[in-house]
Specification:
The protein has 128 residues and is an all-alpha fold. It has helices spanning 16-30, 36-39, 44-50, 67-75, 81-90, 95-106, 110-127. Helix 3 (44-50) packs parallel to helix 7 and helix 6 (95-106) packs across helix 7.
């Protein structure tokens, strides 16, 4: 098949795999401000949370926080999502500080703390 780069995109003579790669390169070169992180997938739970006001949502409505971590957070007084948001804001939306706090408070792993941080950061971007 034909070799190509994002700077020299062929229009014909591509196998199916190369066509898909070509379309991907066209997509990413057409949107230079779109980061890889923005293209990563998020859970339905994340999308639901960041798509509407927080209100009185339970702490388990946060991405990355299931029943086990939610129970541990509730034991520490963080029973609602807005209480965790308050801690997030007290920590000045700092990723490292928030993730460390979540790990120390409820023994969240890296993925869980990262999902929760991203969820709260995006919610703040949408509503604050």
């Amino acid at each position: 098949c034909v070799s190509f780069s994002a700077r020299q995109l062929p229009r014909e003579g591509l196998c199916e795999t190369c066509k898909n790669t070509f379309l991907y390169l066209v997509f990413i070169t057409a949107l230079p401000s779109l980061s890889v992180a923005a293209m990563s997938s998020t859970s339905q739970k994340h999308r639901d949370f960041v798509g509407e006001p927080m209100g009185e949502k339970e702490v388990t409505s946060l991405a990355g926080i299931g029943d086990t971590l939610g129970g541990r957070l509730k034991e520490q007084g963080f029973d609602k999502a807005y209480v965790v948001l308050g801690q997030f804001l007290v920590l000045k939306k700092n990723e490292e500080f928030f993730k460390d706090w979540l790990k120390a408070t409820c023994n969240a792993n890296s993925k869980q703390s990262g999902d929760c941080y991203t969820c709260l950061r995006e919610w703040c971007d949408n509503f604050l």
